[in-house]
Amino acid sequence: MSTAAVRLGRQRSRSRSERHTAWAMVAPTVVIVLAVAFLPVLETMWLSLHHSTASSSLSNPGGFAGLRNFSALFSDPVFAQSLKYTAIFTVVAVPIELVIGMGVALILHRRFRGRGFMRAIVLIPWGFPLAIAAVLARLMLQSPFGILGFLLQQVGLISSSSSVLSNNTDLLIGVIVVDVWTSVPFIALLLLAGLQTIPNDVLAAAKVDGATPVQSFFRVTLPLLKPALLVSLLFRTLQAWAVYDLFYVMAENNIKSLSTYVYQGVINGDVLSFPPATAAAVFTFATSLAIALVYIKGFGVRTVQDA
Amino acid sequence: MSTQFEVSAVRRSRAFRHPGGAGRIEPGHHAAKRRQRVDLVLWGGVTVILLSVVLPLLLVLKISLEPPSALNTFPHWSTLLPHSLTFSHYTTIFKDSQFLGSLKSSLIIAGATTIVTLLIGGPAAYALSRLRFRFRTTIMAGILAISFFPMVAIIAPMFIQFKELGLLNSYFAVIITDTVFVLPLAIWILAAFFRQLPPDLERAAKVDGASTLQAFWHVIVPLSAPGVVSAAILTFISTWNEYLFANTFLFDASKWPVTVLIPNFEQSRLVPDYGAQAAAALVVTIPILLLVLFFQRRIVSGLTAGAVVG
Question: Which of A142, A252, B216, B234 could form a Cys-Cys staple with A146, CB 3.0–4.6 A?
C-alpha cells in the first residue's frame, strides 16, 4: 500500500470517528428536545382528540372525541375573548415597541457623554422578571392607594383611580404598557447591533450628497436594518402571541390570553375544562407556527446559518 | 447591492435638485442651529429613557420604605415623597421563611438549569458549529424551532407524565422543561462563539494524535470562557424569570420560586402587605440588576448572537 493510500484510509477512519463523536455530542440535546418539546406537542394533539382530563393517562386518554373539542373551543365565549385580547395585545404592543425601540437604538448609537452608562440602564427593564414587573405595575395601580393611578387621574387619563384594575380596557392598556417597558430594550439592542454594522461611509456619502437626516434614515439606514428589524419583529410577535405572565399576574381573572386560557384549563383538569384547553394549546401552537412561517417564507427572515 | 442602489438613488435625487452639489455648502450659523436642535433631541431622548426606567423603580422603592400606615392613605401630590422611612418591610421579608425558601428555590432551579444547559448544549453547539455530520442543518433547524414554540403547547401532556412518574411538584419537572426552552438560546450563543474561533485550532492537536473529543476538551473548552459566560448569564436570567412552568408544576408554596411566590404575596397573609410585596419584588430583582450592570457587554453580545442568527 502506498503512503498516500494509508493516509487516505486514516483520514477516512478519522472522519468516520469524527462523525460518531459529533453524534455523541449532539445526542443528549436531541434526546431531551425530542422528549420534552417535539413529542409533547404531538401528545397535546393526541389529547385534544379525546375526552381527556388531568387524571387520564397518555395511553388511555379517555374516549375519542374527534374534532368535538375544537368545536367546543370555538363556541366558548371565554376562548373567543382570550383570542381577541391576545390579538389586540400583539397587534398594538409589538409595533409600539418597534417604533420606541428604533428611537432608543438611534439615540444609543450617537456619541455622547455617558453612553455606556445609558446602555446599561436600558438593559434593566429587560432583566426584570415579567411576573415581578406585573406585580410592580399592580402595586402602582392598586386601588385606592396606587400612586400611578393617582397620577393618571390627575392628568385626566382615567376618571377614577379605582377603575384601573377593574375596567378591562384600562387593564389591557396597563398590560401593554408593562410589556412595552420590558420589551423595548431587547428590540433596541438588536437594532443597535444592526446600526453598528452599517458602514459609516455609506451614511457619510448620503450626507455629502445633501441628504437630510430624515432622508438618509428612510432611504439608507432603514433598508440596511431590514434583517435586524424582521428578526426582532419575529421574536417579539411570537412572544406576544404566547403572553402568559403579564395577563395572569395583572389581570388574573378579568382578561385572559390564549396561554392563560390553556393554563387554567390544564390546572382545573376536569372533563369540562381540560379538553378545550388541549385544543386551545394546539390552536396556539399552530398559529405560532403560521406566524413564524409567514415571517420566514414571506419576508425572508434568515434564521439558520449556512454551513 | 441594495445599499449602493439606495445611496445612488439619494445621490441622484439630490444632484437633480442641486446641480453641481451646491447643496452641501451651508452657512455656518445654519449648521450650528441644526446641531443645537439635534443635541436637544438627543438629550431629551436620553432624559425620557432614563426617567422611564428609573421612575417606576423609585415609586416601588418608596412603597417598600414607607410605614404600613402610609399605604392606607389616599394618594395625593403631598404623598409623592415619603413622609417617614422604615426598613420594617425588609426585616419582615428576611424573617419570612416562605420568602427565604423561594429565594432558595429560584437559586436551585436557575442554577441547575444553567449547569444542565451548558453541559448538554456546549458539546452540541461545538458539534453543530465545527464538525461535519449528516442532518446537521436539520438538527439546527429543529433546535431553533423550539424558540418558536409557545410554552403552553406542552404543559398538558407534561403535567400528565410528571404525575405518572411522581415528578409533579418537584424541582426536576421545572428544571427539565426550563432547560429545553433555554437550550436554543444557549446553543446559538455558543455556536456563534465557536464558529469565530480560528478554523485550524483543533487540527494541530489532531495531527498530534488527539481524538475529536480530546481536541474539544483540551483545546476548545479552555478558550471558550467568553462564550460560556454569555450563555450562562442569559440562561440564568431567563430561568430566574421563568413563571409558567413553575406555576404549573409546583403546588407546594415551600417549593415556589420568587416569580410564583411574590404575585401571591399579599394573598398569603391575613392583611394585604403591599410594603412587604414591594420590598420582596425589589430584593429578588437585585441579583438580576447586578448581573445586567456588570456583564452588560456579555449580555448584549449574547443576545445579538442568539437572535441575529442570519
Answer: A142
CB contact residues (below 8 A), chain A span 59-98, against chain B: none
CA distances from A62 to A78, A83, A275, B159, B168 (A): 24, 27, 10, 16, 21
Helix B274-294, helix A130-141: angle, nearest 10: 140
Note which residues in 84-103 of chain B have CB less than 8 A from chain A: none
ipTM of the complex: 0.88
Q: How far is B23 from chain A (nearest CA, A)?
A: 6
Q: What DSSP designation does A146 have?
A: -
Find out whether the peptide bond into A144 is cis, omega within 30 degrees of 0. yes
CA–CA separation, B210 vs B18, rounded Å? 67
CA distance A216 to A214: 6
Spatial distance between the Cα atoms of A139 and B216, rounded to a whole number of angstroms: 50
Is A110 in contact with B42 (CB distance < 8 Å)?
yes
Q: What tens digit of pLDDT does each residue of B25-50 get?
A: 445 666 676 667 778 888 888 999 99
For B157, residues 6+ apart whose C-beta sits below 8 A from its C-beta are: A40, A43, A44, A46, A47, A58
Q: Across the interface, do B152 and A37 touch by the CB < 8 Å criterion?
A: no
Alpha helices in chain A (DSSP H): 3-33, 39-48, 68-74, 77-109, 115-127, 130-141, 147-154, 168-196, 200-208, 213-216, 222-241, 245-250, 258-268, 274-293
pTM to 2 decimal places:
0.86
The C-alpha atoms of residue A275 and residue A279 are separated, in whole angstroms, by 6
* B52 Cβ contact list (under 8 Å, min separation 6): A181
Q: Say whether B149 and A288 touch across the interface (CB within 8 A).
A: yes
